[in-house]
Design brief:
Blueprint lengths: L5 H14 L5 H17 L10 H13 L4 H20 L5 H10 L4 H8 L9 H10 L5 H16 L3 H6 L5 E2 L4 E4 L12 E4 L5 H16 L13 E5 L5 E6 L8 H13 L9 H12 L4 H10 L5 H8 L4 H11 L15 H12 L1
Antiparallel strand pairs: 1-2, 2-3, 4-5
């Protein structure tokens, strides 16, 4: 039987109320799952009675779970964040929480494993275009599915933003996706100005044709969902069947992920989830050999305030590419004279001193 600590439930509800102002529902669910695990491991002890031993017991239990190092770190990080919020909201004294919060961390080895980058599976732009061409386009649902994949590549937007967009959020003339947090579910409720990425005319045409179809054939307006949920009706045997498009947003991104999964499977490719398209776009940025200013604009287009976020989170170089770039350096000619050699800082200072005498 599931145990419940009434005091903990009241505190949890207050935490959720504050999280809802800043985080997406999926992120909140992850935080709550971590907190639930903490409660179970510590025997549903009151949050206000936290001790260093409770924190250490939780971390030790997490370290024994058969999950990835990154997921372990996430569980611990979420619980640590909860108790930091407890202190900030004055539900617990900072002096009492200092040692427990300090103990909510992985070992150095665990931290290194959690932060080590793994190879990210990503499709190339060409593979995505080829996948689109294998998808049928005979009815409203199939048109939506094709345009959904095209728009995700064209915008680089997160799935939560994509499924909450309306038709009017796409400016075909200005080539822009308007991600205003008042209407689109952006990460951390940020205003993101996104112009179409240079991923090919066929991608732009796919999105353009779909929006034109929505407006002219289905009489959608700018305030209707860009990618609406499938309409359900009953056949003569009272069985539910897909029957065109509704004018409702999807409740979650799960249907979007299912569409991606089916499309890549039909193209005999592994599953690339919607978020992986952001990795695809950073790989494209490298291929284009952008100048610093253009790379910064590319990063801002993804909704990042710092270029580091784009490069470190989505710009990991594949091992094949790493190998190619490093080995190509062996083919570069070495400096053959002192005139071509790069001076050290000490040598530059010495030359400058000589000229100033």
């Amino acid at each position: 039987m599931t145990q419940i600590n009434p005091d903990n439930e009241r505190i949890r509800m207050a935490w959720i109320a504050e999280l809802e102002d800043e985080y997406a529902p999926s992120t909140i669910d992850q935080k709550l799952k971590s907190l639930d695990s903490y409660e179970q491991v510590t025997g549903f002890v009151s949050f206000t009675d936290v001790t260093r031993d409770h924190a250490k017991t939780f971390v030790a239990d997490v370290m024994a779970w058969k999950i990835s190092s990154a997921t372990r770190a996430s569980y611990v990080h979420h619980v640590k964040g909860f108790f930091e919020w407890m202190v900030m909201s004055e539900r617990i004294k900072g002096k009492q929480a200092r040692l427990p919060i300090k103990s909510l961390r992985l070992t150095r080895k665990g931290q290194r494993a959690a932060t080590s980058q793994r190879q990210v599976k990503r499709a190339s732009v060409l593979q995505i275009i080829d996948t689109l061409q294998t998808m049928p386009k005979s009815n409203a649902i199939e048109r939506r599915n094709r345009a959904l994949i095209a728009a995700t590549l064209l915008s680089g937007a997160r799935d939560g933003a994509i499924i909450s967009m309306n038709v009017g959020h796409v400016d075909l003339i200005g080539k822009e996706f308007n991600q205003h947090p008042d209407e689109v579910n952006t990460k951390a409720s940020k205003l993101i100005h996104t112009w179409f990425y240079p991923v090919g005319d066929e991608i732009i045409e796919e999105v353009t044709d779909y929006i034109t179809y929505l407006k002219t054939e289905l009489e959608f307006t700018d305030t209707d969902p860009l990618f609406p949920a499938t309409n359900q009706s009953q056949d003569e045997n009272d069985r539910f069947i897909a029957d065109g498009l509704s004018k409702r947003h999807w409740a979650s991104a799960q249907p979007m992920r299912e569409i991606f999964k089916a499309a890549f499977k039909a193209a005999n490719l592994p599953y690339y989830n919607p978020h992986s398209f952001r990795h695809t776009l950073m790989a494209l940025a490298y291929e284009l050999e952008l100048a610093p200013e253009a790379l910064k604009a590319w990063s801002q287009n993804m909704g990042h305030e710092k270029l580091d976020t784009s490069v470190n989170c989505y710009g990991k170089v594949s091992l094949d590419r790493q190998k190619k770039l490093i080995l190509e350096l062996h083919e570069r000619p070495h400096a053959e004279s002192d005139d071509d050699r790069v001076l050290t800082v000490g040598e530059m200072k010495r030359l400058l001193d000589e000229r100033l005498r």
